[in-house]
Amino acid sequence: MTPEYEVITDPYKVQEIRTQRFLTLKWSTEEQLLKDRPKHVKDFFKHRQVPFKLLCETKFKRSLFGIFLHSHNKNEIQDYFMNDSKLAMLDYDLKTYSENELTQLECNNNFTPDLRKLLERAVDEQEVIDYDFLYDNVYALRFCDTPLTFIDDQLLKFHHLKVLILCGNWLTDIPGCCLPKSLEYIELFANQIEFINNFATRGPKGLIHIGLRRNWLTNDSHLHLLGKPNKFHYLQSLDLSENDIYELDELLQTLAELKQLMCLQLQGNPCSVTSSYKDEILRRIPWLVQLDLTEILDKDRIVPDEKKLPIDAGITFTCHRIMNCPKPTKEKSVEKWFYFSVEMPLLEDVIEVKNKNGDIEVVKSVETQLSKKVKEKRADSSMTGKRTIATKTKSGVTSKKGIPSSSPYNRQDEYADECKRHVVDTTFKTARFAWDKIMQLPEEALVIKSAERNFVDIRDTMRSIVCVKLIYLEVRPAEKPKKPNKNKNKSPVKRTSTSTEIIQEPKETIIKKITLAQFDCELHSINWSDKTIDYIWADQEQFENKAQFVEGSLRLINYSENPQKESKRKIENETAPDASSPTTLLQQQVKQPVPKVFTIQVGFGLQRNYYQS
Known about the structure:
Layout: H1 14-23, H2 29-40, H3 52-62, H4 80-95, H5 99-108, H6 115-125, H7 131-137, E1 140-142, E2 163-165, E3 185-187, H8 197-202, E4 209-211, E5 237-239, H9 248-255, E6 263-265, H10 277-284, E7 290-291, E8 294-295, E9 315-323, E10 335-343, E11 350-354, E12 360-364, E13 368-369, E14 390-392, E15 398-400, H11 414-421, E16 428-429, E17 438-439, E18 446-448, H12 455-461, E19 465-476, E20 509-522, E21 533-538, E22 548-550, E23 559-560, H13 563-573, H14 585-588, E24 592-593, E25 599-606
Parallel strand pairs: 1-2, 2-3, 3-4, 4-5, 5-6, 6-7, 23-24
Antiparallel strand pairs: 7-8, 9-17, 9-18, 9-25, 10-16, 10-19, 11-12, 13-18, 14-15, 19-20, 21-22, 21-25
Helix pairs in contact: 4-6, 9-10
């Protein structure tokens, strides 16, 4: 639900900018598809309801069984010879099907595995083939992306059904009384289920897996019924991921009653973004084998002895490397810095306050944890000082003195334009860093937290597209105050009751600001075992303005300007290894060559607690 913001009249229109950014937030491709899904069928379901019985009969009629079922072919003779002849003609027709026709045929016959073998068996065993044969011999049903809206007692006719997959439908409730008692596996991904009381109280007791991923579940969805005594004794796998479950402690009290539970999925819920997510789960359910489809190792089971772990959450950003970035020229009395700017509209919290002079001053109330070594100073709002002299090159292109005309540092200054238009920068920024051949930031260069500890905003940000900018800054540092001469007598400071002299600290002067690189990162939920999800961008046409997601960790890669020379030198100096002391993977890893184009590698993660034995 889009929050409402009060629009306050102010010269910078801060609140309007904040609201506009929220409304124009770019979601990831998968998230946008799931959000747009109800819009396409909104009018269809206003006056229509599709029960399971109607869907089931329609699917069977369109399948290979359709021409054999007696209920749909009452005017035909039913015997072994007739059915066998139909099967032979069907095989002949299938050989003439086009690729598109075969694709459509597969879609109409994928509701149960090995349907063709089941049909051959029906021809061999039955004189008259009808629905009763399917009810007795179908062990798995799969109806996905259909207009199914509710389940009726038609499902009870499948006496030996063990697997039921109903993904991408429009179910709002699962009546447990309509599920066969033989059912062991049920998957209900991407429906609209909000409450599970009807399912949990009257559902089959022999379930081994329950899948409720990407529904409308919250802490008020009667999840406590899952741990009801004498109910789900055999449940080994539970998938509640990508819902809106906020309180983890309340849920774990219920799940602790499921003594056979081995696999649990909660990734994508607001409760999964907390720093103590994995620790709290393993402390309450230590017998788990898998968490979020990741095997739990012995080192992962190291949990602090505290009775209650601190609840906190934040998104981390880091730059693994910047390579082949053009080197800026040196200028006297001018500092040249780089920093990253990250746009996360859901976590921005902009307010306006009045300073002592009565002027409106924009303040960002969200505090960010920067590098401990350097903190970025606030830029002076006024532009003072002389700019560097511009000269004309032989080609006639205006450029800074000593800088080639093709240099990215010759681009137009953005800071002057921002000052004229009173642009309020609400993005999150890393600490400044100087140029180097290979630039690298700390693992948690930037930690962004929600101002109101709203874990939903953090979860939703990990579903959106985040814009990252690499900014180049030229700054004239503040003049250091002159030290007083000890030999001269100190003049007394005159103070009166009516006036006091306010001494302002000197501020730095921003000379130039340029965006060297700008690209989008399409985020997604991150597993508890991963520190970051990594992206790479390069100054090439194939990337344009979008970074590419990379499997694995980019931080573990080693780069070298001359990897071949280093490998030869290593082979010459290397002695025969001792069989009793095996080399580690990092020692065996060959260094990669530095890319020849301007390349940036970044990573996003969640604040996690890491403990070592």
